[in-house]
Structure to design on (341 residues):
């Protein structure tokens, strides 16, 4: 599978993502400068973490207007995979590929930590290599990761099982204490209704190489590959 | 050749837009809460419901006031505010004609 990693002025997790797809998983990977508008050669687009365009106005608000994001929206509309990590999640909400918004953390501080996450469903390209209800550990590093959406949107997210990851205790319980940023419904990551677009605040790409101490993120990337080899399974057929 | 007796009326007018962007009432504002706590510490104990927003000022040209209002409304809706979490309001002021200023 061919991966493209978007690079905006201010992106800073782009090479971490490429390290996973190119070096650990041996997949063709290219960096995509934000001014590119033809991404038709790519199977998976990754919008990495960082501070695109300095996070001016709102996180992700300016990145949304780049030619590369226009191409990413077309890519997603064809049912192809888009993964937004951290700032990438913020960009996906700003561009409207995912509902809701990411706001200032409940306690106002920038949080750089490791957190426990519960995998809420495993019939998706992103999570099928995990166990249902499995608790995994991933790093987070954000100041604006508090997920907000109105009641109707939250109800729809629950109804259509779009919440893939929730913050939890190490034993898998959700609670205010285990919710680092105040996200509603303890949301750490959601997909769109058809399942081909995922946004999450934690960093799976920083938890894929054993040398870094955590490896729970690798199954997310590896899952993309093994999902695609099962040609009879389309994303839409199970969502 | 005829020369016009009076200058043509310019087809565009100049406007100042003053835009206030605020969090929707249903959205928690942890920064506002922190500032409120600071104000209480200063002794302003009667302070309540501190909400922090943004102020954007810009100049634009448009055919008339209605067109300017329409443009600013679109700017707010499409970029300056995020309708998921924010409300906005603005005032439009017509500026003195630039041609006359020159």
């Amino acid at each position: 599978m061919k991966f493209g990693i978007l690079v905006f002025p201010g992106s800073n997790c782009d090479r971490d993502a490429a390290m996973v797809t190119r070096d650990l998983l041996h997949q063709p990977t290219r960096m995509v400068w934000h001014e590119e508008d033809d991404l038709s050669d790519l199977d998976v687009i990754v919008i990495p973490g960082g501070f695109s365009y300095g996070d001016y106005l709102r996180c992700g608000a300016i990145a949304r207007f780049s030619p590369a994001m226009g191409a990413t929206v077309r890519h997603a509309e064809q049912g192809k995979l888009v993964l937004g990590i951290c700032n990438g999640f913020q960009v996906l909400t700003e561009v409207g590929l995912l509902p809701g918004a990411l706001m200032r953390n409940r306690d106002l501080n920038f949080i750089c930590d490791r957190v426990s996450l519960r995998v809420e469903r495993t019939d998706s390209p992103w999570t099928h290599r995990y166990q249902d209800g499995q608790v995994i550990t991933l790093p987070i590093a954000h100041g604006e990761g508090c997920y907000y959406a109105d009641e109707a949107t939250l109800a729809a997210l629950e109804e259509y099982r779009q919440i893939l990851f929730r913050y939890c205790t190490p034993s898998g319980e959700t609670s205010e204490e285990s919710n680092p940023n105040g996200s509603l419904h303890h949301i750490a990551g959601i997909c769109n209704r058809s399942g081909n677009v995922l946004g999450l605040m934690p960093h799976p790409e920083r938890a894929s190489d054993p040398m870094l101490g955590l490896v729970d993120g690798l199954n997310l990337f590896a899952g993309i590959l093994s999902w695609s080899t099962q040609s009879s399974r389309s994303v839409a057929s199970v969502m | 050749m005829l020369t016009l007796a009076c200058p043509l009326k310019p087809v565009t007018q100049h406007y100042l837009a003053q835009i206030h962007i605020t969090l929707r009432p249903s959205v928690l504002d942890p920064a506002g809460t922190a500032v409120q706590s600071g104000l209480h510490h200063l002794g302003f104990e009667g302070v309540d419901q501190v909400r922090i927003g943004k102020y954007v000022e810009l100049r634009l040209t448009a055919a008339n006031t209605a067109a300017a209002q329409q443009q600013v409304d679109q700017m707010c809706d499409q970029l300056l505010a995020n309708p998921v979490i924010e409300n906005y309001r603005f005032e439009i002021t017509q500026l003195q004609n630039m041609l006359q200023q020159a």
Q: What stands out?
A: Chain A has six helices and eleven strands. Chain A touches chain B at residues 57-58, 61, 65, 93-94, 99-101, 103-108, 148-150, 182 (CB under 8 Å).
